[in-house]
Each structure stands twice: as structure tokens, then as C-alpha cells.
Amino acid sequence: NGKIKLQNKESSPIHMVFGGIVASTSENTQILNSIAFVESLIVNGVGDGSIGGIVGDMDGYTSGSADLGGIVSGSYANIQIDSLVSPNNSNSGTYYNVYVGGIAGEANLCDLNNSRSNLIIGEGVNIGSKNFFYASSLVASIQGASYNNSQISASYGVLKTKKIAKNHRYGGVTFEASYSRLSNVYYDKAISI
After folding, report:
1. H or E segment and range at residue 58
2. pLDDT of the residue at 91
3. How many CB atoms lie within 10 A of CB 157?
4. What CA–CA distance (Å, rounded) separates 142 from 129?
5. For every one of its 193 residues, what pLDDT tens digit does the chain have, with 9 covering 90 and above?
6. Which of 168, 176, 173, 167 lies closest to 187 in space, CA to CA?
7. What is the DSSP letter of 145?
8. Bridge-partner residues for 41, per DSSP?
9. R_g (Cα) of the chain, nearest Å
10. Helix (H, G, I), strand (E, B) or coil at 43
């Protein structure tokens, strides 16, 4: 039915990675022509982490190669996050980051192309005042390297949020990028308070 609840039963926040198709990938992983529907995602007790409609954390680094190793192509994700609770860490100097993307939360040395997403952030997202919540319609954080750029091309994403807070950061196609190329991309962002 597409309803998923992840409950941390530990006393301290945990690192959490979630993806509609796969949580985490490495090296030469290819996700092609895939569809993910997550009708309702409820997460409690996360410290830091990555959430993506297709993949939570995609690391395309391949030892000894300068090529982009991770590929998401021809895929579609529809994900609604109804609740995400990330309390402050008891260690005073520690901050947590949660990355949420319609296709991928975080991507390193990856090629995302010909894909679409619909990401809805519900009112139940509650991030501790020391933490940060980064969200975007396609990939929250995309990183390349000096020897090869990550890229997002020919893709479209929708981001709708019902929750705005001082420590929430929203981006259109992506929130942050380095050594990356974006081409022929489009997003629609709707915010209601």
C-alpha cells in the first residue's frame, strides 16, 4: 500500500538512509526505468540521513576510474513524507543534516537523466533547532569531483511543502551542488503555510 513507518527505538538519534527503490548504492550501480510510489513515509528518531524517492544515498565513485559510476535514468518517484522527527543531539556542538530529494537525497559522481519526481513534505516534519533539513525536487545534494562532473539532465521535479521552519532549506532542482552540471531541468515548487 506504499505506507512505510521507520521507528528508532534507541535512546539517541540514528543515521538513516531510505530510498523508494534502494536505500544506498555504490560504484557502478544503474537504476533504469524504475517507478517508486511511497504514499506515506513516517520516520522517528533520525539524527542525520538521506531520503530519496528512488535512492537515498548514491555513491558512484569507482576505484581507479574517472567515469561517473552511478546512473538513474528513465525513472519516476512519488513520495510523501508525512512525519520526520529529528531531535537535537545531546552533544552540544553536534549538528545533524537530513537530505531529502524527489529522486535522491545525496548523489556523488552520478548521472541522473530523463527522470521525474513528485515530493510532498507534510506538516509532521519536526527538525531540532540545532539540525538542518535540506530538500529539493530532484536531488538535495549532488557532488562531483575535479576530474569529472556529476550531472542532472532532461529531468523534472515537483516539490510541495506544507511546513516552513527557520532551519529548513529548500532548493528547486537541487539544494547544493559542486563539480556538477545541470542541463534541461525544470522544477515546480509550491509552498503553503
Report:
1. strand 55-59
2. 62
3. 27
4. 25
5. 578 888 787 777 778 899 999 999 887 889 999 999 999 988 887 888 899 999 999 988 766 666 667 889 999 999 999 988 887 665 656 678 899 999 999 999 899 999 999 999 998 888 888 888 999 999 999 998 877 789 999 999 999 988 788 889 998 899 999 999 999 998 887 654 3
6. 173
7. B
8. 4, 81
9. 16
10. strand
In the chain, the amino acid numbered 175 is: F
What is the spatial distance between Cα 165 and Cα 167, in angstroms, rounded to a whole number? Answer: 5
CA distance to 30, 85, 115, 124, 169, per residue, from 75 (Å): 11, 28, 5, 27, 25
Does the pTM surpass 0.85? The reply is yes
Class of residue 115 by CB neighbours under 10 A (exposed 0-12, middle 13-18, buried 19+): buried
Q: Please give the grid coordinates belonging to residue 7.
A: 521507528
Cell of residue 66, nine digits: 574517472
CA nearest to 138, candidates 111, 106, 170, 103 = 103
Which residues in 49-68 are b (16+ Cβ under 10 Å) and which e?
Answer: bbbbbbbbbbbbbbeeeeeb
Alpha-carbon distance of 54 to 159, in angstroms, equals 15
Cα distance between residue 45 and residue 6, in whole Å: 9
